[in-house]
Design a protein that fits this description.
By secondary structure, the protein is an alpha+beta fold. The chain has 8 helices and 20 strands. Keywords: ATP-binding, Nucleotide-binding, Transport.
């Protein structure tokens, strides 16, 4: 049986060092929820608190309505998958997967039936009699996943499960994990520092820094309307440009350092007028126009420093007349690649760009969905 997880006012300390100061979170029954952040942000610490491997200095942890703060880890009915696979090297694939069922004293006929089922589910049934040292990293991780799932845990916890695999295997395995999690329907808490991995597999993501959740939401919401400047720069690539937010005759504008001004209406009603802001523009949100008579009269004037042709797209690295630097992605056109030294004008896609208060670093945009207190009964990110 899968469960929802509720965390209220969690505190974690190591001596005098507070790793998690005050964290609350609801993880929905059946969703794949990712804790994402840089090394040392507290994501693995929080996962281990859920598992019962770390002490809890404050707050309350629940599986559905049952508090688990003092519950023995062995009684929490969790499955775990680690980055180093942690499968037994002296046991065959089949015996590795059977291990948890034998520990639970499941009848032999059920052990065989369940083991066969999960070996097939993760597509390693043909390797059932092999020893782990004869498997690839991806195959070993599949075995670890089968072993965690075969005991039918209430919660599956995954700590950087793909970090030891090469790039191609990581992409393959994240698809495997996403599909299996969806098929089994088990509540899964997934820890990673890889933002692309998190975006690819998650129903929702909590972006963490210094033990604090900065944004919790669906991948597309976090990417399109990040809650603050940290999230904007951690998720994907962003160009950060200084500007001023203005209101004139009831209209809102962004004015950049060179005087380039654009209408900018999708902002909060209480956004402070005449304030300094930082504009976050993804590389695809800055549009390139070669300088010349056909170029826009208003824009950010720049010079191309370098370019990288990647087939479908070309990445331009540019220096603005203000001294700021930016990366721009443009669809490749073989007959019009711009060489280094080319003068260009950049215009801003105002529908997609974001602006943040320069003092607080908080977003001034409408449409920022950021709630760690989502209802546990809503599954797979369907509510807004």
């Amino acid at each position: 049986m899968s469960v929802g997880i509720k965390i209220k006012d969690a505190v974690k300390k190591y001596g005098q060092n507070t790793v998690i100061p005050d964290l609350s979170l609801n993880i929905r029954n059946g969703e794949l929820f990712t804790l994402l952040g840089p090394s040392g942000c507290g994501k693995t610490t929080l996962l281990r608190m859920i598992a019962g491997f770390n002490s809890i200095e404050g707050g309350e942890f629940y599986f559905n309505d049952k508090q688990i703060n003092t519950m023995d880890p062995g009684k929490r009915n969790i499955g775990m998958v680690f980055q180093n696979y942690a499968i037994f090297p002296n046991m065959s694939v089949r015996k590795n997967v059977e291990f948890g069922l034998k520990t639970k004293k499941v009848p032999p006929e059920t052990i065989k039936e369940e083991t066969d089922k999960f070996l097939k589910l993760v597509h390693v049934d043909q390797y059932a009699d092999r020893m782990p040292d004869r498997l690839s990293g991806g195959q070993q991780q599949r075995v670890a996943l089968a072993r965690a799932l075969v005991i039918r845990p209430d919660v599956l916890l995954m700590d950087e499960p793909l970090s030891n695999l090469d790039a191609k295997l990581r992409v393959e395995m994240r698809t495997v994990i996403k599909n299996i999690q969806r098929d089994v329907g088990i509540t899964t808490v997934y820890v990673t520092h890889d933002q692309e991995e998190a975006m690819a597999i998650s129903d929702r993501i909590a972006v963490m820094k210094d033990g604090v959740i900065h944004h919790c939401g669906k991948p597309k919401d976090i990417y399109q309307r990040p809650a603050d400047l940290f999230v904007a720069t951690f998720i994907g690539k962003s160009n950060l440009l200084k500007a001023r937010f203005l209101t004139e005759s009831g209209r809102h504008y962004l004015e950049f350092l060179n005087g380039y001004r654009v209408p900018f209406e999708k902002v909060l009603k209480n956004a402070p007028d005449q304030s300094d802001v930082v504009v976050s523009a993804r590389p695809e949100e800055l549009l390139v126009h070669p300088a010349g008579e056909n170029a826009p009269k208003e824009g950010l004037r720049a010079v191309i420093s370098d370019s990288v042709f990647l087939g479908l797209n070309t990445h331009y690295f540019v220096k603005l007349e203000t001294g700021e630097e930016a990366e721009v992605i443009q669809e490749s056109r073989i007959d019009s690649l711009l060489p280094p030294g080319s003068k260009i004008i950049l215009t801003l896609n105002v529908e997609k760009a974001n602006a943040f208060d320069a003092q607080t670093t908080k977003s001034i945009m409408e449409g920022v969905n950021n709630s760690t207190d989502a209802p546990a009964e809503a599954v797979n990110g369907e509510e807004g």
